[in-house]
Write a structure and sequence with these properties.
Blueprint (H helix, E strand, L loop, with lengths): L10 E5 L2 E8 L2 H15 L6 E5 L22 H9 L9 H4 L2 E5 L3 E5 L1 H9 L8 H8 L4 H12 L3 E7 L2 H18 L4
Antiparallel strand pairs: 1-2, 2-6, 3-5, 3-6, 4-5
Length: about 190
C-alpha cells in the first residue's frame, strides 16, 4: 500500500464541553455527503463542522450541497463557472459563510471552513502555528495521527472535523466518519 493511504479511522478526543472527531473523505463530493449526514443524523450545526480540501474549485454551492431539484455540475468547467459565479462565497449563512481560501506551506492552496479557516487563516496560513498538523494537535490529536491526516490532505483527500457536544452526537458522528473513511479506502 502506498504511503498516505490505508485505513485511517476517525480520531475521537474528549475535550472540555464535548468531543473532537477528525475523519477523511475520498473527495469533495463525499465530504459534502458526510457534512449533510453529520447535520441530519448527529444533529450537528455548521459551527460544529470544519472541512479542509486541497481542491481549489469545489461544487458551486460550497459545503451546502446542491439544492433539491438543481442539477449537479457535470464537469470541472461547470464547477469552475459555478464557483466563479459566486456560489462558493455567496451561500447564505452556514459553512459557506466561513469559507476561506488559504495557502498552507507544504500543502498548497486549500479551501477551509470552521476551525480550520479561522486558525489557519489567522496564523498567516498556518506557518506560525505549526500549519495543519499544529491545528490537529491543538484539537488533541497525537503528532503521528495529525501527520497522517496531513498526508491524506496532500494527496487530495478531504479532512472533516467535528465538535460534538454530547457523547451520543459523538458516537453518531464517529459512525458517519467511519463510513466515509471506508469509501476513501476502497480500491480505485
Amino acid at each position: 500500500m502506498e504511503p498516505g493511504r490505508g485505513p485511517l479511522p476517525p480520531t475521537t478526543q474528549k475535550q472540555p464541553g464535548g468531543y473532537n472527531l477528525v475523519g477523511v473523505a475520498a473527495n469533495y463530493k463525499e465530504a459534502l455527503r458526510a457534512v449533510d449526514e453529520l447535520r441530519s443524523h448527529a444533529g450537528l450545526s455548521d459551527e460544529e463542522i470544519s472541512v479542509i480540501a486541497r481542491h481549489p474549485d469545489p461544487p458551486h454551492d460550497s459545503l451546502h450541497g446542491t439544492p433539491a431539484g438543481t442539477p449537479e455540475p457535470q464537469d470541472e468547467k461547470s464547477i469552475s463557472r459555478g464557483a466563479a459565479a459566486g456560489g462558493v462565497a455567496g451561500g447564505v449563512g452556514g459553512l459557506a459563510l466561513g469559507l476561506a481560501s488559504l495557502l498552507i506551506p507544504g500543502i498548497g492552496p486549500v479551501l477551509a471552513t470552521g476551525v480550520f479557516a479561522s486558525v489557519l487563516g489567522g496564523a498567516a496560513a498556518g506557518a506560525a502555528a505549526g500549519g495543519f498538523v499544529g491545528v490537529l494537535r491543538d484539537q488533541g490529536l497525537p503528532e503521528d495521527r495529525a501527520q497522517q491526516f496531513e498526508q491524506r490532505l496532500q494527496k487530495g483527500e478531504v479532512i472533516v472535523s467535528v465538535f460534538a457536544p454530547t457523547e451520543d452526537q459523538a458516537e453518531v458522528a464517529r459512525e458517519v466518519l467511519e463510513r466515509y473513511e471506508e469509501l476513501a479506502n476502497r480500491p480505485l
